[in-house]
Amino acid sequence: MRSLFEKNEKMWAKILLTVVCLSMIAVAAHFNASRERSLLAAGVHDGPRLRVMTWNIGYAELEDDSRAHTKDLQAVAETILSNDPDAIALQELTGAEQLKVLLGYLHGRYRGAVAPAGNSDRVDAVLVKDRNAGFEQLPADGKFAIAASFRLRPELPNVVFVSAHADAFSAARRRVFTGEVVDWARNRPHQSIVLIAGDFNFELNLKNESHLYTDNVKNDSEAYSYALKYFRDLGRDAGYTAVNDRRIDYLFGPTEAVLLRRAEVLRDAGVGQMDHWPLLIEIAL
Question: Given a cut of 50, is residue 31 above it in pLDDT?
Fold first, then answer.
């Protein structure tokens, strides 16, 4: 009898211990901090999405005319329509007439504006879906960038989206240009979501010094570092954006307040003799 009692006692002890362990696991799962963080983050993940694109649609420098070619604009429009960005920064258009042609191919889904040429023979453009968007020119080192201000929804923060193109041949001028664009952008109203997009021609990898456009890695590093002082390099992990494995097209955004959801270089989107591919970024506001 005693042996049977001891055996039953051990069995019930094991059952009780098992019940206690299962209860502890259930409680831990319910109050697990990482699970709570995951649930809290889900609201951010499901927030409004902003999709933007930057693309230098000019040709390689060896071509007779390295600016955008009007015959390519229908293909450019098809890439835009198939990816459906809310805003697009374009570089190396010849002028307002090309933008008008492109907007026609986009079937009225976008509004746009071009920057003045300044001391250049090519211009930047910005396109947005928002019918109430406003546009502003910003001078920088004798050139002009162009910015759009818009909202995804009336209740959401204002978005300021800049299209810019730094000098291809002088790193010293790139540094000055970048500094002036960044200073303009960081002085927008505090509640705005500010994004700077474009071809900055930074050559930051010493292995790439043989490239035609590299003239001063120090200046490019200083310019890039200055941009990172106030903004985040959203396309950092997307890879190269131009031929010869060069990452010279950038999209800078807020260091906080947004969540990066996608960063991709669309390398099947090149047309004719273009030497850049579009960089597509999607963030959650």
Answer: no
Tell me which DSSP letter residue 108 carries: T
Identify which of 166, 239, 177, 242 has the alpha carbon closest to the alpha carbon of residue 211.
Answer: 242
Which strands form 249-253's sheet, in the order they lie side by side?
Answer: 134-140, 143-150, 159-165, 193-199, 249-253, 232-233
Closest CA to 93 of 70, 77, 109: 70
DSSP 8-state secondary structure symbol assigned to residue 59:
B
How many residues make up the chain in this entry? 285
> For 28-45, what is the mean pLDDT?
40
Instruction: Name the amino acid, one letter, at 117.
Output: A
Q: Which token pair is 59?
A: 């040709």
Nearest to 241 by CA among 91, 130, 33: 91
Q: Which sequence spans correspond to the domains of the chain?
A: 2-31, 48-284
Question: For 124-147, how does the pLDDT look when each residue is reduced to its tens digit (9 = 90+)?
Answer: 999 999 999 999 999 999 999 999
User: Residue 90: phi, psi to the nearest 5?
Assistant: -120, 145
Q: Which residue has the tokens 């709570």?
A: 36
Residue with tokens 């983050």: 41
The CATH homologous superfamily to which domain 48-284 belongs is: Endonuclease/exonuclease/phosphatase (3.60.10.10)
**Residue 220: its H or E element:** helix 217-230
> What pLDDT, on a 0 to 100 scale, did the predictor assign at position 30?
44
Q: Are 186 and 194 in contact (CB under 8 A)?
A: yes
CA distance 113 to 163: 10
d(CA 21, CA 237): 44
Residue-wise pLDDT for 146-158, tens only, equals 999 999 999 999 9
Q: Are 149 and 160 in contact (CB under 8 A)?
A: yes
The DSSP H or E segment spanning 178 is helix 171-186
